[in-house]
Amino acid sequence: MIQIALQAPGRFIATECAPPVQAPGEALVRVHRIGVCGTDLHAFAGRQPFFNYPRILGHELGVEVIEPGSEPHDLHPGDRCSVEPYLNCGRCIACRAGRSNCCAELKVLGVHIDGGMRPEIVVPTRKLHRSEALTYDQLALIETLAIGAHAVERAEITPDDFVLVVGAGPIGLSVVQFVQVRGARLAVMDVRESRLDFCAHALGVTHTVGRGPGAVEQLRRIGDGDLPTVVMDATGNDASMAGAFDLPAQGGRIVFVGLFDGDISFNDPNFHRRELTVLASRNALPENFRAIIALIESGRIDTTPWITHRFALADTPQRFAEMAANPGVIKTVIDV
Length: 336
Description:
336 residues, alpha/beta, Quinone Oxidoreductase, Chain A, domain 1, Rossmann fold, 2 domains, 7-stranded mixed β-sheet, 6-stranded parallel β-sheet, 10 helices, 17 strands
């Protein structure tokens, strides 16, 4: 059985591996699709926090159940599932409070432990979310969408809000989709015109803003004189995140969805004068996975525009660098 490991920044290797061994509470699954996300790209570039090499990447997974295990469950061989890749301890203060996404001992597949760039893996049975209707492509997108869904929940967005999403990469696009579900006024800001065009034409975003001089005035026009009540930064860029403090209205909220390995500074009088609220959003919760599957099944979220590129698992060592350097990529899916 072949597996693809990121041996060092910029270097994938293919090796043979033994079939995985199932433990109590685990399901054996066949990996059909792997979504490539910003975490994978940052790891490839050597810029991913909380990361060690070598590592088998792959945490956005569409899988088929081979053997669901012996402990109580409602899964059957052949079931199609999305994988919730956040392996939490179940004991810490966050887990006891129902916030498994920020478990004190959290391990994420493909980041802290080896992930899904191989034909078969074992995962805790409780981390599988089944759908009888969705394709493996769609199931591989659930985790990305869950990041956006959880961030929007953290922001407590209502239809009365004016929301600015900064950064129109895959995570920012997932935030966009759930702001749209909430019915809030929405603007998207990015430095790439091609990303803003994608938002307008593929996702139906009415208001797009180029980052740079004049952006604040443009936001005021969109907000009928007011700045956004919620700013959601999905860039993982320190300059953008520091600049986010200048964009909300009085009493507004900032949600950092992207992260980078460093410190953020801001002007305290400006922060206090506006009485801003700053929130972090990390990963997602089990209920986000279930809700998103239902939203896609019902047609309220359309995943058709998302996947713009794909290649086979065996081609990863040759194709990944080319894909990572392509500014036209929205979402790449790897076929296993």
